[in-house]
Amino acid sequence: xxxxxxxxxxxxxxxxxxxxxxxxxxxxxxxxxxxxxxxxxxxxxxxxxxxxxxxxxxxxxxxxxxxxxxxxxxxxxxxxxxxxxxxxxxxxxxxxxxxxxxxxxxxxxxxxxxxxxxxxxxxxxxxxxxxxxxxxxxxxxxxxxxxxxxxxxxxxxxxxxxxxxxxxxxxxxxxxxxxxxxxxxxxxxxxxxxxxxxxxxxxxxxxxxxxxxxxxxxxxxxxxxxxxxxxxxxxxxxxxxxxxxxxxxxxxxxxxxxxxxxxxxxxxxxxxxxxxxxxxxxxxxxxxxxxxxxxxxxxxxxxxxxxxxxxxxxxxxxxxxxxxxxxxxxxxxxxxxxxxxxxxxxxxxxxxxxxxxxxxxxxxxxxxxxxxxxxxxxxxxxxxxxxxxx
Length: 390
Prior knowledge:
The protein has helices spanning 15-31, 67-76, 106-122, 133-140, 148-169, 193-206, 211-217, 238-243, 245-256, 290-298, and strands spanning 50-51, 56-60, 92-95, 126-129, 223-226, 229-232, 305-308, 318-320, 325-327, 342-347, 351-356, 369-372, 387-388. By secondary structure, the protein is an alpha/beta fold.
């Protein structure tokens, strides 16, 4: 998903070009080893890639730094109450990635999701989060889509994180905290000085082995299979399945934790990457490679459908390729197209349906109504709106 409400971006003249050129500067420092001090690795348990089919499964698309819209999506599915506490019982929820960029409340969403994960477990439910292309980009130091408000949020984080480290250093017997800014230069070529500290804070937080990336992103999955549904931010090709879904998850986790250099694994980079692929997400059905999708799903035992984010669907959540491709990014963030929140629900007994906040589908005294008939909703010559459930 690459469309953006330009008004939400940094307004300083030429800053986008500064941030774009900064990516190359960051990589140059990384390759030299300046950014990534050596650390002793602790063996980690494999992430869980396959989950059994739950009674109720909810999928939520890209959030992009918009906390209020994120909460609206969770409320839409009956997952949180008026106090933002988990009330979803034993529901399994999958958030498809792209919390970062385009909005200014990225850290707030990270903490919100972390809180819900803990509350859900206590009720027999679970919230599983994925890495999107914007998480991968930011860990690599690509900040082209960051907003001014987001930089300010990381500035505040860095201030309090530094105070916390200073307090820890006063306690006898505790290990001396690692300086998160170690190895990061004080300024960057062509980046205005007024943004230098914010850029440094974002690098420190999100680079491999950074405090925020380790805490909130390292244990995200990149590929997930729940029952007969495959979840991935962009899409999967046969070569990805052959490489190994479990292997992809473990390697991305190890990379984020700082043991595989600055660059993301190859299958996370480029147009055919698992977080970038759009072969099954085009708004025109004739451009979706349904034959390829069929072959890919056939290589994953029991898989019936692939559920993806990444590419904004202006008509809302929809299905293509005879419902084998379900696209759930509705661009809900104000930094995207400010779309009306929608979520996908898969019930073990009643199948797939879309929960929407679109008023044209609402009935009196109901917050969310459903729309059905996902089918092949995207005809060759343009989009078609879904039918209202009777």
